């Protein structure tokens, strides 16, 4: 049965730096001996930022179809980012995806190894509640380039967040979200100065160049 197998979980976030939109965290779980790279020998598995949109979509399509892979996503809104700060928001989302995967897969905690991309951490209280040994959890600098499961998580998070920002563009067309996905491009900054922030903006991120009127 599945719970007797050994697994690797990779967790990554997308959207830490933008001025607008959520931060989105994905956790991907794969069997320890599953060769991810054989899923797609034409497009190398990389950090999502190093793949084109079409390459990411192709990988995402394969991830969804692969029976050996499951994933969980959690996004934190701009409002909560402003209240919690970006680091706490991303770490909170990482804990949520781990809990969701545990409920979904019921993996063997003693035979599951969790790798987070640099900057992400899961509180020891969360791991203790889940019964996951601390020694099985590691934050890896540039993990999205080193750990295939993290690379997969990066791709899923990027595709899903980008799709959300495309939809957000239809709601707030003045800011060009479909072009920059909320990042602080010159065009985006000019739009904020001209139109003011929307509900999709992180007010704590734009105070250095825009005076918010209360």
Overview of the molecule:
- The chain is of the alpha/beta class and 214 residues long.
- The chain has a single domain, classed as 2-Layer Sandwich (Nucleotidyltransferase, domain 5).
- Helix content is 43%, strand content 16%.
- It has nine helices and five strands, in the order ββαβααβαβααααα.
- Strands 3-2-1-4-5 form a five-stranded mixed beta sheet.
- It starts with 6 loop residues before the first strand and ends in an 8-residue tail after the last helix.
- The mean pLDDT is 93.
Fold topology:
Elements: E1 7-14, E2 23-31, H1 53-65, E3 70-76, H2 78-84, H3 86-105, E4 112-117, H4 124-130, E5 137-140, H5 143-146, H6 148-171, H7 177-180, H8 186-195, H9 203-206
Parallel strand pairs: 1-4, 4-5
Antiparallel strand pairs: 1-2, 2-3
Helix pairs in contact: 1-6, 2-3
CATH superfamily membership: Ribonuclease H-like superfamily/Ribonuclease H
Structural class: alpha/beta
> Which percent band covers the strand fraction?
15-25%
Please tell me the total number of domains: 1
CATH architecture identity: 2-Layer Sandwich
Main pleated sheet:
5 strands, mixed
Low-confidence stretches: none
CATH topology: Nucleotidyltransferase, domain 5
Radius of gyration: 18 Å
Count up the helices. Answer: 9
Task: Describe, in short, the structure shown.
By secondary structure, the protein is an alpha/beta fold. It is 43% helix and 16% strand.
Any key phrases for this structure?
single chain, 214 residues, alpha/beta, Nucleotidyltransferase, domain 5, 5-stranded mixed β-sheet, 5 strands, 43% helix, globular
